[in-house]
Amino acid sequence: MSDMPGAPADLLRSLTRAERLLSRRLAAVLADDDLTTEAWRVLCLLADGLGHPMSEVSAEASLPPGTLTKLVDQLVDRNLVFRRIDPLDRRRIRAYLTARGRREHARLDERVRTNLLEAGVPADTALLDHLADLIARLDPAGRRDHAEAAGLRR
Question: From CA 151, how far away is CA 104, in angstroms rounded?
Fold first, then answer.
């Protein structure tokens, strides 16, 4: 990388490494329940109870629409998610957590949080605030808070 501490390459490398390590840890926690980190991202996004258009879920979960459709089909088959036509725009489909999906999300959220605390990952929001600030600076269009979408905030 660079000889200068704090160089963009160092930031990219550090963020990439942290994301990979966190994803690996989450995958290990979720494996017992036969869920992927992608499925976890979808459950976390839908946990707010508002229902989200599939296009938004695709963007927030960083999944192409076809891949998301297959994943949501699997979550529907497991009775964790359901889809409905958007009442305001009948051309759109919105996804929601089922009652079982809400219970499973809450249970898994507790397991993930406990695992991260056991690993020494701080529960304070300072890092999340810094990342949210970085995201806001890099994404001035103002897409939704990615830390919240990833289920890292309550």
Answer: 13
CB 51 within 8 A of CB 94: yes
CA 87, CA 94: separation in Å to the nearest integer? 9
Chain position carrying tokens 């219970």: 103
Show the tokens assigned to 18: 């942290």
Q: What is the pLDDT of residues 101-124, one digit of tens each?
A: 999 999 999 999 999 999 888 877
Tell me the β-bridge partners of 84: 94
Q: pTM for the full model?
A: 0.81
Provide the residue ranges of all domains of the chain, joining segments of one domain with +.
34-149
DSSP states along 27-81? HHHHHTTT--HHHHHHHHHHTTSS-EEHHHHHHHTT--HHHHHHHHHHHHHTTSE
pLDDT in tens, 5-28: 667 888 899 999 999 999 999 999
Residue 3's pLDDT is 57
What radius of gyration do the chain's Cα atoms show? 17
Q: Residue 86 to residues 2, 29, 32, 41, 70: CA-CA distances in angstroms?
A: 49, 33, 34, 21, 20
Tell me the angle at which helices 99-118 and 8-31 cross, rounded to the nearest 10 degrees: 120
Q: Which class does domain 34-149 fall in?
A: mainly alpha
